[in-house]
Amino acid sequence: MKVRFELNEAPMEIDVAPDRRVVDLLREDLRLTGTKEGCGTGECGACTILVNGQTRLSCLMVAAQLDGARVTTVEGLAATTAGATIQRAFVEEGAVQCGFCIPGMEMAALALLRQGDAPGRECIREGLSGNLCRCTGYTKIVDAVERAGRDLHAGREEQ
Amino acid sequence: MSPREPLQVGRPEIRYDAAAKAAGTEPYAADLYPENLLWAGVVRAGVASGRLRSVETEAALAVPGVVRVLTAADVPGPNRHGIIHRDTPVLVDGRVRHAGDAVALVIAETHAALRQAIGRVRAEIEPLPAVFDPEAALGEDAPLVHEERPGNILLAAEIRKGAADQALAGCEVVVEGEFSTPMQAHIFLETENGVARLEGDGTVSMTVSSQSPFRDRFEVGAALDIPYDRIRIVAPSLGGGFGGKDGATVQCLLALAALHAGGRPVKMHWQREESMAAGYKRHPCRTRYRLGADRDGTLRALYCSLLYDTGAYAHLGGEVMELGMEHAGGPYRIPHVLIEGRCVYTNNPVAGAMRAFGVCQVAFAMESMLDQLAQRLGMDPLELRLRNTLVDGDVNCAGLPLTTSTGMVGCLEMLRDHPLWRERQAWKDGAPPHARRGVGLAAVFNAAGYGGKVRDAAIAKVELNPDGRIAIHNAVADMGQGNACGFVQMAGSILGQDADQLELRQPDTATAYPSGSASAGRTTYTFGNALIKACEELRQRLINRAGLLLFLDDDCDLRLVPGKVIHPPTDREVPLSRLAAFMPREDRVCISQFVAPVCRQVPDTATGFFIGFPHVIFAYGAHLARIEVDLRTGLIRIDDYVAATDGGAVLNPCLFDQQIQGGVAQGIGYALMEEVERREGCIQSESLATYLIPTAVDVPDILSCRLSGNEATGPFGLKGVGEVAMNGPLPAVANAVADACGIRLRRAPFTPERVLLALEEQA
Q1: Which of B61, B81, B665, B687 is the least buried, fewest Cβ under 10 Å from its Cβ?
Q2: Which parts of chain B register pLDDT below 70?
Q3: Which residues of chain A are in CATH 3.10.20.30 domains?
Q4: Residue B122 CB contacts under 8 Å (≥ 6 apart), including other chains
């Protein structure tokens, strides 16, 4: 079927089997390999994308569900203020080790930080609890999201 | 624009790979989808012990899009791989020894066709008696996993120092205990995968998520009878490894598929369930300990017996157990020691390398014993440890005189002075009514390097590119621990360059040089030492050639700065790109090697050891956990965690803390929740819904304290710290639970059920 959606703020139309997993559509068909797959069963969060602003697990979605939706993947993060701020914080706070969970983490962080005020550490931990990381012990990831929250909040105050 | 600053060692330089990983552009093996690719996948035995009678492939071949279904008959060569013992069939050709054994290999045009065809291959397996319990495996009537291995023993060994039996009999105080640790899974997020292709010249080239690209050539070559120079392995950044990608996973299967794919690229990517079923695991271990001391707390004698379950194949099981034995007495001075170790085959999944390689099992037992002893003596557990802790020049429990940096005391002193330790009583008193709070310690250590009788060496290559950038040919895989970033930092520091001026190339057997595996806390140490020499040689050469270009009769005032060589007295400079154009290729490349030190006077304490004994360099750590036990649910919550670590000098504080925090989190999972559940050798906890690892809400902020030391043999004074932190959490949490509730947990992980049961037994 023809699926039309907005992908990282650009219109996208693709002819694809309606039951094609979105993670395969993104990675294999569109070569957007920034979205990772760690389990295929919705447990690890590595394949997290935003669909209409909400976090979604692309390994549990099929192509037909994207029709008419607004989709953001890690490849679209840098183009937004919040996304760029999050990425910078992850890099500078040492939150990145093997990096395989990071795109999904960043998407979860973006959804969390869009909810408003700069969240505290407990709130950040809750917000990221659907995303597994095996390398970092989460401390520096929480540091990064906390800082991104502060930076974004300060940015909003200035405006 | 601010002047460009060269990278410097000791500073928290930003990881060179962080930006690409944060942007999603770092290329992992899993991200490869070459044009015209085929998919390969494995049919697994599904039963733990049996004889393969036949493989029925017709139904699978009838699935549209299926290209080939391969069985053992299609394997050229001996069909056996393995690191030390070549005992693992690429495809089973008779005996099935565990449920994850590969019996057939399917190649298909699409992933969907592949899955369908795998389900249609019928393997007829005649069941044979199996053994799953390591103690039962030792029994006289136990079925043999390998016919040629009587008693199912892979390795039995002993460390004997002094006369432990007599000394224990004469000790004023003796404590004892039996402990059990679970099978743990690595759970790297990028499961085992790769892409292989048969090139026109007959070379099998492969890009694979591997910790050991150079050794992979030997495993693949030996199993499939391919000359090593016809195998090329590329190992890009890994999405985690932790030991589970040390040794062939997909490699032999992929090479076999490539041989039958008519030159098309073949991709294999294990799903999570397959990674659980067929990937390597941490050895479950049972230990029995007796520890004797004087009334003043001076340790006198230790006896312990260790039983490691290596599963169906050897992999590195013997070496894992040996390292456990070498660490079984902890970082302490004990004059009389007897350590008996046995590593046995069972029909369980294959155990192999995992961070802290055999050591976290014994650290649990030994550190629990220390607290039991402290309680018996009425001593402060930290003071008891300090009284017995190894210092420079001591002889350790394996009989080795310590000649390298030994920072155990310093780590313990950092904890002793820490507010979380000093103010523990007030914190404990603040527990809510339904809970108890406790504080636990652990003193741990972990050897670095391959150990005796194994050459631990690296060959580093650096190259001035034609564009004036300097390429570092990394030859030990970066599984995320950041060794490659450390190499960039070292090279930048020596060559006066910033990150923009440096290019890091990940391991490729075609262009880099054999440098061993990313493992054993040796990655940054061994390759780093080689790299320093190569960079120093390149620096001399660039300065010399710049002097030539500038017609100087003396090189002494020339300096390398980012992008150029400068001559301040005459205010002249040579851009590196111009220098590169001036130098022929062979002049732009520097290669240097390093062989890690080994013990030249091997103590006569160990018998039965094969290779890998003894080690000479150790990282040390002292850990503190503050926990709260909910008496209603049995749930343990870790509120605070401190890890003080002696890793020699610190190359990069941020990378250092990353390793410590990650190791602690993996150790917390080991302590609280992680256990690969099996039934009849088949894994029950096969997904991340049933095999739980810590999430962000399960671990506290982990505080890493760095003891600034110096290891004279290390690159810029460092020692590897990738493994030591894994050893602390399990005993520290066990000791904290004992402190909180008076119960001594001896079987990990400490699930709420087990905690409640222990509380009931106590009542």
Answers
A1: B61
A2: 1-2
A3: 2-76
A4: B55, B56, B59
How many CB atoms neighbour CB A131 within 10 A? 26
Which of B 174-203 lie inside 8 A of A, CB atoms? 186-191
DSSP B397: T
Q: How far is residue B232's CA from residue B220's CA, in Å, rounded to a whole number? A: 10
Contact call for residues B457 and B516 (beta carbons, < 8 A): yes
Q: Residue type for B636, please?
A: I
Antiparallel, parallel or unpaired: β B266-269 and B38-44: parallel
Which bin fits A53, alpha (ψ -120 to 50), beta or left (φ > 0)?
Answer: left
The token pair that represents B675 in the structure block: 């256990």
pTM of the model: 0.98
Nearest CA among B39, B185, B43 for reference residue B101: B43
Indicate the fold that domain A81-158 takes in CATH: DNA polymerase; domain 1 (1.10.150)
pLDDT at A157: 77
CA distance B349 to B187: 15
- Window B:3-22, CB contacts with A under 8 Å: 12, 14-15, 17-19, 21-22
Whole-angstrom CA distances from B40 to A79, B77, B393 are 37, 20, 55
Q: Which of B514, B507, B509, B510 lies closest to B484, judged by CA?
A: B507
A18: chain B residues, CB-CB within 8 Å = none
CB atoms within 10 A of CB B605: 23
Q: How far is CA B100 from the centre of its chain?
A: 22
* Nearest Cβ partner for A40 among B186, B188, B272: B272
Cα separation of B440 and B626, whole Å?
7
DSSP B321-383: HHHHHHHTT-SB--SEEEEEEEEEE-SSPPB---TTTTHHHHHHHHHHHHHHHHHHHT--HHH
Closest by CA position to B12, among listed B658, B661, B471, B665:
B658
Asked if residues B698 and B328 have their Cβ atoms less than 8 Å apart, the reply is no
Per the structure block, which two tokens stand in for A113? 């930080």
Nearest chain B residue (CA) to A94: B654
Residues in A touching B479 (Cβ below 8 Å): 98
Angle at A71 between CA A67 and CA A77, to 5 degrees: 165
Residues in chain A: 159
Candidates B307, B255, B333; CA nearest to B76 is B255
Q: What is the pLDDT of residues B152-193, one digit of tens each?
A: 999 999 999 999 999 999 999 999 999 999 999 999 999 999
Q: For testing the chain B interface, which of A16, A20, A41, A98 should be mutated: the one with the most B CBs within 10 Å?
A: A98
Give the gap in angstroms from C-alpha B220 to the nearest C-alpha of chain A: 26
pLDDT of amino acid A116: 83
Q: Where in chain A is the domain with CATH 1.10.150.120?
A: 81-158
Query: What b/e readout covers B629-666, taking b as 16+ CB neighbours within 10 angstroms?
Result: bbbeebbbebebbbbbbbbbbbbbbbbbbbbbbbbbbb
- Taking residue B713's Cβ as centre, other Cβ atoms within 10 Å add up to 18
CATH topology of domain A2-76: Ubiquitin-like (UB roll) (3.10.20)
**Contact, B735 vs B744, CB < 8 A?**
no
Backbone angles phi, psi at B308, to 5 degrees: -105, 135
- % of chain A at pLDDT higher than 70: 99
Helix, strand or coil for residue B604? coil
Cβ neighbours for B633, distance < 8 A, ≥ 6 positions apart: B752, B756
Domains, chain B: 18-27+457-595 (3.30.365.10), 35-128+192-269 (3.90.1170.50), 285-451+601-762 (3.30.365.10)
